[in-house]
């Protein structure tokens, strides 16, 4: 169950947009539309930001959006704000009936 | 509102056992699957195990299969993780999380319980 592949870090200035990629295989990301994204601030529990590739839970800003092409999912954050600085993790359901997370991406707002 | 509170963590020697508990409230516990996810110090999230709403099925990460057992008591709104043959690499904060069944995602998380395996 190797982890999904994410860039270790991304950065952007306030107001800009950034994209975080998440690459898996046909057994997980590519095989199901069950990709989720989580935001985690230091010392805090993860928070669900995106589910089923592109859907937003109630209360999550529409500055967060998700997409998928083949075995790669992406999280886009537009209009970057200081409070967006956090770690972001993707996750996918797999054909083994398990879940797998990405290695995480540290977002720095410059 | 949904609340998940983990407890039972602590320091344990390699090879020993420990049981984590998670108290759930604010939702109909017996209707939802539940997960355990862990995070080693300074590292990323690692999915550990899931149990169905009625406890009839369980799935585990390869790293814990055969050593950890997930269980639940729907009469007490409690989730458990029995951890046996603990290894140094099991040191982590363990989170319990609620499953959003139809969406195959984890929608609510507890604050975590730290397990330290050390001699």
What can you tell me about this protein's structure?
The complex is a heterodimer of chains A (110) and B (119). With 110 residues, chain A is mainly beta. Chain A contains no helices and nine strands. In chain A, a hairpin with a 2-residue loop joins strand 5 and strand 6. The model of chain B has no long low-confidence stretch (mean pLDDT 96). Chains A and B meet through strand 3, strand 7 and strand 8 of A and strand 5 and strand 10 of B.
Which helices and strands, and how do they pair?
The complex is a heterodimer of chains A (110) and B (119).
Chain A: E1 9-12, E2 18-23, E3 35-40, E4 47-50, E5 64-69, E6 72-77, E7 86-93, E8 99-101, E9 105-109
Chain B: E1 3-7, E2 10-12, E3 18-25, E4 34-39, E5 45-51, E6 58-60, E7 68-73, E8 78-83, E9 92-100, E10 105-109, E11 113-117
What descriptors fit this protein?
heterodimer, A: 110 residues, mainly beta, six-stranded mixed beta sheet, three-stranded antiparallel beta sheet, 44% strand, B: 119 residues, seven-stranded mixed beta sheet, four-stranded antiparallel beta sheet
Task: Provide a short characterization of the protein structure.
The complex is a heterodimer of chains A (110) and B (119). With 110 residues, chain A is mostly beta strands. Chain A is built from no helices and nine strands.
Which of globular, elongated, flat, extended, rod-shaped describes the shape of chain B? Answer: globular
* Count of individual helical segments of chain B: 0
Whole-Å distance between the termini of chain B?
40 Å
- Helix-strand sequence of chain B: EEEEEEEEEEE
Strand content of chain A: 35-45%
Please report the total strand number of chain A as a whole number: 9
**SS content category of chain A:** mainly beta
Tell me about the biggest sheet of chain B? 7 strands, mixed
Helical run tally of chain A: 0
Q: Gap between N and C termini of chain A, in Å?
A: 34 Å
> Mean of residue pLDDT of chain A?
96
Query: Percent range for helical residues of chain A?
Result: under 10%
The pLDDT mean of chain B sits at: 96
- Computed Rg of chain B: 13 Å
